[in-house]
């Protein structure tokens, strides 16, 4: 496929900053991008697969309090925003705006911290491909959070050399193996007062020859 010389991959002109606030007020997150063809924005929360809202994408716990929009200025800048009314502790997390066109993609991520008890949003089933690496981030809200860790069968991860668990709730499993790695995993978040939240996620591992060369190394299923 050929593109004209004046075509350009997206470039972010403005992006939102990390915020820490009490529950209750309205929060506005905005990103502005330029590019040719005009880029399309998508939004995600803690990297999980989105549900469709208008022309912009966002996975959120309560859609009724979220207003998601996108428009183009007379200067061909694309402005996308997420407005959250009556923000709650479970709305906290790492928000990402991504602008993409046929030439390329650019993204920005920052945390929105809402004071409150630990809360972990529901996670969809995750499907990985045997032999590939899998990255899962625990969708923790509430602030401040003292500890985040992953467990499986009552054991704190990592329990082998292929697993890496980080303090920010990210779990990496290298070179997935269906018999060893498929199953139920539990994320636990705790504050300094020892108040906790726990949530399970199911990880399925498929063999490579069942997926074809076009399959990605991780997919998600809502339900």
Describe the structure.
Keywords: Cell adhesion, Disulfide bond, Immunoglobulin domain, Membrane, Repeat, Signal, Transmembrane, Transmembrane helix. The chain is mainly β. It folds into two domains: 105 residues, Sandwich (Immunoglobulin-like); 90 residues, Immunoglobulin-like (Sandwich), CATH 2.60.40.10. The protein is 2% helix and 54% strand. It is built from one helix and 21 strands. The strands form six sheets. The protein has a six-stranded mixed beta sheet. A hairpin with a 2-residue loop joins β15 and β16. About 7% of the residues have low confidence.
Strand content: over 45%
What's the total count of β strands?
A: 21
Low-confidence stretches are: 50-59, 211-216
CATH class of the largest domain: Mainly Beta
Shape label:
flat
Counting helices, strands and paired strands, the structural category is mainly beta
Strand order of the largest sheet: 16-15-19-20-12-21
The value of Rg in angstroms is: 19 Å
* Helical content band: under 10%
- End-to-end Cα distance: 37 Å
> What is the CATH T-level topology of the largest domain?
Immunoglobulin-like
Mean pLDDT: 86
What's the tally of helices? 1
The helix-strand sequence is EEEEEEEEEEEEEEEEEEHEEE
Biggest sheet statistics: 6 strands, mixed
């Amino acid at each position: 496929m050929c593109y004209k010389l004046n075509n350009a991959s997206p470039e972010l002109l403005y992006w939102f900053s990390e915020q820490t606030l009490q529950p209750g007020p309205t929060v506005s997150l905005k990103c502005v991008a330029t590019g040719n063809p005009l880029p399309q924005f998508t939004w995600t929360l803690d990297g999980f697969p989105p549900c469709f809202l208008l022309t912009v994408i966002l996975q959120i716990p309560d859609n009724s309090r979220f207003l998601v929009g996108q428009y183009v200025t007379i200067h061909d800048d694309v402005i996308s925003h997420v407005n959250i009314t009556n923000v709650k502790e479970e709305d906290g997390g790492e928000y990402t705006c991504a602008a993409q066109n046929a030439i390329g993609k650019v993204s920005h991520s920052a945390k929105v911290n809402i004071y409150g008890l630990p809360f972990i949003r529901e996670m969809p089933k995750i499907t990985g491909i045997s032999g590939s690496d899998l990255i899962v981030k625990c969708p923790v809200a509430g602030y401040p959070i003292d500890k985040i860790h992953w467990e499986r069968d009552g054991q704190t991860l990592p329990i082998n050399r292929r697993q890496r668990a980080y303090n920010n709730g990210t779990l990496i499993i290298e070179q997935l193996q269906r018999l060893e790695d498929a199953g139920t995993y539990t994320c636990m978040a705790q504050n300094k007062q020892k108040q906790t939240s726990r949530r399970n996620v199911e990880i399925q591992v498929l063999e490579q020859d069942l997926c074809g060369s076009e399959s990605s190394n991780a997919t998600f299923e809502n339900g």
